[in-house]
Amino acid sequence: MAQANKNQDRLFLGFDFSTQQIKVIAVTDAFEVVYDGHVQFDVDLPEFKTNGGVHIHPDHVTITTPTKMWVKAFDLLLSRMKASDFPFHKVVAVSGAGQQHGSVYWKKGARIQLANLSPDQNMFDQLKDSFSVDDSPVWMDSSTADQCLKLEKAVGGPQVLASITGSRSYVRFTGNQIMKISETKREAYDNTERISLVSSFAASLFIGDYAPIDHSDATGMNLLDIWTREWAPKCLEVCGPNLAEKLGPSVHSTKPVGKVSSYFVKKYGFNPECVVVAFVGDNPASLAGLAPEQGDVVVSLGTSDTVFLWLTKPTPGLSGHIFANPINQDDFMSLTCFKNGSLTRERIRDENSEGSWDKFSEMLKKTPPGNNGALGIYFDQMEIQPFAEGVYRFDGEGNKVDSFPPEVEVRAVIEGQFIARKVHAENVGFQLGPNTRVIATGGASNNQEILQVLADVFNSPVYVKEVPNSAALGCAMRAKHTLDGGKFSDIAQKAHPSVLVASPGPYSQVYSQLSVRYREFEKMIETQSQ
Ligand code: ADP
Ligand code: XUL
């Protein structure tokens, strides 16, 4: 009984250091949200003159964030919590997420400054000169095409790099960003004693020491071997001198990385026993927040569509990314992003259903699953996989046609998109299992008829979760899991039960045939686009 009462007073914090803001939520053991706050960089810290949290350089491809702005924002967030009498002493564990791929360069000597922060001053004043590179490259940067080629060439080609690190080389991936710094800012590189990701940087602020990079975020660097979870020597060698030393160790995402430093205890009243659990990438954190069971598939239907998979046997290839799973040490997750999502669906709605989702849904119900063999591929913008653009329609006989009747067009866009989501999921290792669940989220998950197509195409039940701040919540859940142990899925069930919204009809045969045809059409379009 005493224990139960004591537990009722416990709080967990989940942070999200994202592109435009830092968010925090505080939850109880029962996942009641008792505090929800944020600092928005453009609005709250106008002195840094960011736009959407970043600076776009004149070349348009270099995109950075002033590192010390994050420190100041963190100070501000905590001081706002203090001003609202937030009970810091009740917090037993914290964890957090960071935008993936971004990097922070700590200057030689910074570790000592970090370990000796005085509670009489703020962190910004004490750490503002602790970085050897003032502007952190972030995930939006695309200035490293040359470095990407170099890395792939050095290891034996894009597929070899993907087979080692889970992804071919990508301009935003940190190894390539580090290589660019080592080539263009050599003095600053040599004057760097530790390179953190945004996630491990935030954890470092909390523990007053360099926090290790967690495996899930480390797999977004083109530097970690996804199978052994060790830094890949060949990649390190190409990306910068003495890089292993500058990166320090990596650690599984479930591990505690220390306790809050005395700065937080003295300045804010944290309990000195408060545990800091490894901070992770924002996408892995969202997986924890949304899809906490082995085999789960998340389909996020927003401006662009994103598919996350919890995988046990990944097959890394030339599209999508394989990351280490943030919950289960032996498992993986994939992340595949599709540019043509809601905006394409909206265009088809406007042209065929008078701009009304209700009419669009009615039309969807009028056509049979499989659309009598009609198949459409709608890449209004250059798609990511395949790298192709344009609209392609095929009738039931496989002939290319210029248009479809409105009802057929409406079904074709939804089926074409969802078949693509499934085909690319299979490419990175997705296999339908008896317990596969599809978790739908994002704007279009409000649409029951669209979700029915999703269930039919994936031949799996679809659940909906609208979890605001899924990355921050995922981190609060992870913090509790590391502290208390037990099954992660039990924690998740408590945090937000899933709601079943659509069950698959008897169409697995129809969609497996269409998937085979889709693969052929996609290959043809990709070849034509080259
Ligand atoms: P973001 O990715 O920017 O966070 P959201 O997840 O909020 O976006 O999704 C926004 C999109 O949701 C809109 O562009 C809109 O097309 C789509 N949407 C909203 N309601 C519906 C609906 N009932 N049916 C289909 N799509 C919808
Ligand atoms: C993932 C990616 C973005 C960032 C920012 O690979 O680049 O989703 O994590 O949120």
Automatic annotation (TrEMBL):
InterPro entries xref list? ATPase_NBD (IPR043129), Carb_kinase_FGGY (IPR000577), D-XK_euk (IPR042024), FGGY_C (IPR018485), FGGY_N (IPR018484)
Q: Which family does it belong to?
A: Belongs to the FGGY kinase family.
For this UniProt record, give its keywords in alphabetical order, as a comma-separated list: ATP-binding, Carbohydrate metabolism, Kinase, Nucleotide-binding, Transferase, Xylose metabolism
Q: So what does this one do? A: Phosphorylates D-xylulose to produce D-xylulose 5-phosphate, a molecule that may play an important role in the regulation of glucose metabolism and lipogenesis.
Q: Tell me the organism's taxonomic lineage.
A: Eukaryota, Metazoa, Spiralia, Lophotrochozoa, Mollusca
Protein's name in the database: Xylulose kinase
Q: What class of enzyme is it?
A: transferase
CDD domains per record: ASKHA_NBD_FGGY_SpXK-like
Q: Which Pfam families match?
A: FGGY_C (PF02782), FGGY_N (PF00370)
Domain Carbohydrate kinase FGGY C-terminal as annotated: residue spans: 298-480
